[in-house]
User: Fold this.
Amino acid sequence: MTADNGIEVEGLVREYKKGPRAVDGIDISVAPGEIYGFLGPNGAGKSTTVHVLTTLLPPTAGTARVGGYDVVKYGPKVRSLIGVALQEAALDPLLTGRDHLRLQSTLQSVPKHQREARAEELLHRVGLADAADRKVQGYSGGMKRRLDLALALVHGPRILFLDEPTTGLDPQSRTALWEEVALLRREDRVTVFLTTQYLEEADVLADRVGIIDRGKIVAEGTPASLKAEIGRPSVHAIPRRDEDRPAIAEFLARFGEPLDTTRDVAVRLREGLGLTDIVRAVDANGVDVVDLELRAPTLDDVFLAKTGRTLEGATEEAEAGRQEQPR
Amino acid sequence: MSSLPQVGAIARRSLVRTSRQPASIIPPLVFPVLLMAVNAGGLRASTDLPGFPTDSFLAFALAVPFIQGALFSTMNAGTDLARDIETGFVNRLALTALRDWALLTGQLAGVVALGVFQVLFYLAVGLAVGVRFESGPAGILVLVVFGALVALSFGALGAFLAFRTGSGEAIQVLFPVLFVFLFISSMNAPRNLIGVDWFRIAATLNPVSYMIEAVRSLIITGWDWQALGLGFGLVIVLGIVSMALASRALRLRMTRT
Assistant:
């Protein structure tokens, strides 16, 4: 039945009352067994899309089929096929990890005789066996995320939705969660729809990436193909003295299009140029730089090319916009 | 698959949560009993009034904790549910195969179980201080059923407020309002002996008076069918209205497809 493990979205729109279109006519196709990374800044429409695909919100327009079932017409069927870890872990601080698994497996109709064994298996799988009988209020952020993942897996879902699963986690916990997600796809052939605002996460985990900004998908493809689309590398120079920045920017502009960066001076190189051309010119002209670096295109470059903003800048913009909104 | 295991799982969670929060168990047990003790000490002389239905003010006042405890439970049940909405736990439940009615029923089953526990505690306190139940063991059984119904009705009201507002703070704001209903009732004196006109009228219009009087009749009168009919009738009506409102609010809150 792997043919039914995909996700198909056509012209999906979700409007909130008195608000802008959170999701504005997106099309997505996720193949069975694929990890699809949904990348975008805060407020781009990622979580709203997940809420619609997981049946928590009805769409305003468009269609979405998850596991072959329309999310509006067959909500209960869709819910039986999917596992979901939402952005907020939403655990009960007074229950233990094992309490949560017992509750979730009963609500997900796992046969009674399998519940204890399933809970034990999942607790071991996510590394929480020793903490299983401790109240969740004593768990770290990483432990809560891992429990959340175990809860999402309790009924053996064919499709997994992870909404920013590593936000706020330390690098070690983040890597552990990535390994678990990769394992799920590799061993269980689970389809994963993963939202993230971390470029590295999308780059490392996802087979394909959809980049969303202001409710619209601005780019989609494999990380490699998206970066190849941008094509040319960039050169980044760090001036020895801050007052030299304008002069260095003017100098580097001879080699390509200037990039909007804050930490250094950078240009996207013109076709046919390489680092050696720049180094020779810097040397010949006595330009005083501390460091000169050639960078291959990243997904942030893709985001910049498609939206005119960096992902970090877009996130800050979204947060500033939220603070300005009257409460 | 039957929804009964789901109801049981939600009820169990409700009870486990409550058992792990002493602040949710102790005040509904202790404060009504303390208030009863204070009132019984200060108002003992009321029993000398002509027409006072008993010579034991403790027996007269024992009815109040049953209703006051239920008010505490309402607030706790409502606040717990509102917290679930605020933290997203309701979304977690909505993503499972849980049916809407099973969520409400399970939550209320937990409230009723706690309500029955409270009733048994107040009964034990009453028996320990020498209160005689005129209606006998059958009356005690009716009292437990009545207590369960009161907990269910008030619990449904708390659930309605939680689903409607989604805010624990909003529910806490209503706490004093519910207590006004309790205090402007026949909790401390039979209605026919209340001397202040406006107070007597307010107590007569206040449904809480009839709930207290139903419990009181079982303790000090025996089988007063009119008091029981009014008490049960009002609680059942309140229960039906609260359940209908809570179910509707739940449907609006759970927008899942």
